[in-house]
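Example 3.
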Amino acid sequence: MDEGGWVLATAIRAMALGTPILWGTLGEIVAERSGVINLGVEGMMILGALAAFVVAQLTGQPAVGLGVAAAVGGAAALLHAFVSITLRANQYVSGLALTMFGLGLAGLLGRGWEGRPLLDTLPEISALTYAGLGLAAALWAVFYHTRWGIVLRSVGEMPAAADALGVNVALVRYLAVAFGGVMAGAAGAFLSLAYRPAWTEGMTAGMGWIVIAIAIFAAWDPLRAVAGALLFGALFHLSFRLQAWVAPELLKMMPFAFTILALAATAGGRRGQGAPEALGVPYVTGER
Amino acid sequence: MRRIYLVLALVLIAGLAAPGAAQQKLKAGFIYVGPIGDYGWTHAHDEGRRLAQQRLPWLETIYVESVPEGQVEPFIERMIQQGARVIFTTSFGFMDGTLAAARRYPNHIFAHASGFKRNRNMATYMADFYQVYYLNGLMAGALTRTGRTAYVGAFPIPEVKRHLNAFALGVRTVNPQATVHVRWIFEWFNPAAAKEATEALIAAGADVFAFTEDSPTVVQVAARRNLPSFGHYSPMQKFAPRHVVSGQLVHWDRIYIDFLSKIYAGRYTADNLADVDYWWLLAEKAVELGGEPGVPINPAFRAALQAARVSTPDLGRVSVYDLVMRRLAQMSAPQMTFDPFTGPIRDRKGVLRVPAGKRLTVGELTSMEWAAPGVVGPWPKEP
């Protein structure tokens, strides 16, 4: 195939696989910017995937499935928010529990839904892809050019100061975590309605963890998340294209290693600056 | 006070009744490596368990799913405590743990799928697809327009290599110039990897698809490009009714019912299993050709396969459709008069692997590392 064909084909694959990764990553970035790390992305994503698939099967309307998946993802995230913000439990433990809970519950409820073809699907490169790109730009603008962005970031950097200025820290964090869940649920819906499209237990197959890694290595920057998601999608596809010439054992690690290396190398001094100061720390009024 | 006597009496009655019932029933435990909902390997084993339970009124079954390969022993212990007398472990990686448990519980019966270690109380069993892959290959060879067929492989291990080689032998029988392009995903279940591997093969010009992965992803991706494919393991024709030509289906219930019935009848005991190895193929009906039970070839492809003609040494010039049906009948007969791995067969480097007139033994089939002619792509551990 000529070079132009290679580039175009790889770009299309990058957009297809990059879409769910980007949606999940943007959600996680917003949550982490508010100071709450959510390791439950995998769980929220698979709950979204199942909800979307079941609703699309029952109604014949994939768009309705997408909406329900987003709501389910958001509801799952609220569990994490309650445990980690209101009860001030360890965020890492709570997030891991959410992943296990989500995988288990989706497996249980999804029994009998495997092996069913979906008649009404969503296209792979769809409004979701462009919405993801648009959302990244919008979030970037919100973060750095609006009052909301300042509020969100100060809650994640120095919640005590934000609190002193009259910001409702818990509310901001709740909203940010819920937004993350909505995005993860929608990402899961993309998997079961467009990318696959089918339901199988465990079908997210670790994508939630890729999302968390990209959120961190993108230095919590929405635009860099776009680069990370597309780079990962392109490299993942290329790892199979290149098997004709390069040992597959080496290629297996390539998308993971190269994406992280590329993001880390270009982050420069921004990574330390980008990490929310209060990430992972429960906020207690009056304590420092 | 009187109520306590009543409870005691009930407990006594239950205690007396229970052993009586237990003597009637045989309890079997199944240990799965994946989730039942995988629509692949574990799903198929659980179908087998459920069919066996339906068919055998004296059978009682329990199961655990998603058991990590290194941790099978505690799960075996628990099943034995729950009263299981027969334990099935259904993943290659459970082999050593199952053997250790078999030695520790000499009066219980164990059966391990896809392995090669046995004991006086531990049998092995496998329903293998190589014959069916060969038949799929015959059809793929007739249907390819670019001369490039494709195979998405899970792991480069002897089992998958055997299936891939059988597929390639079939392709080359019909189309001596055609190639089989391979991509490995190094996972039994990963839809995203299967998808991108398929896209990579499409980009390389392949136009007919076979695979080993536990989801219908390859079938779906090929169908979106209007390209034919072969289902794997579970009925997948329904995912692409106009594009799935055929495929491989498994019937583990055949093995489970046979094995359990022989235990129940007293023919198999915890003392005579050292040589019991079920290696069940088409003839035993443990595997089936088709993308849907009872449909060996999708009628949508019948005309195309009848139009393609091929010369054979034993049947003369026949259509590919007839050739597939003939070979299927030959391999389904109790006395197998055809086997794909009959010599002379050279590997893709030209080394003679099966001498003329010889058939590969089960041991040679299960340790196959070489690549058949026509296979293009990486082949880890190629001799």
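The interface with chain A takes residues 34-39, 43, 156, 181-187, 189-193, 195-197, 199-201, 203-204, 214-217, 220, 234-235, 238-239, 376-378, 380 of chain B (CB under 8 Å). DSSP finds twelve helices and 17 strands in chain B.
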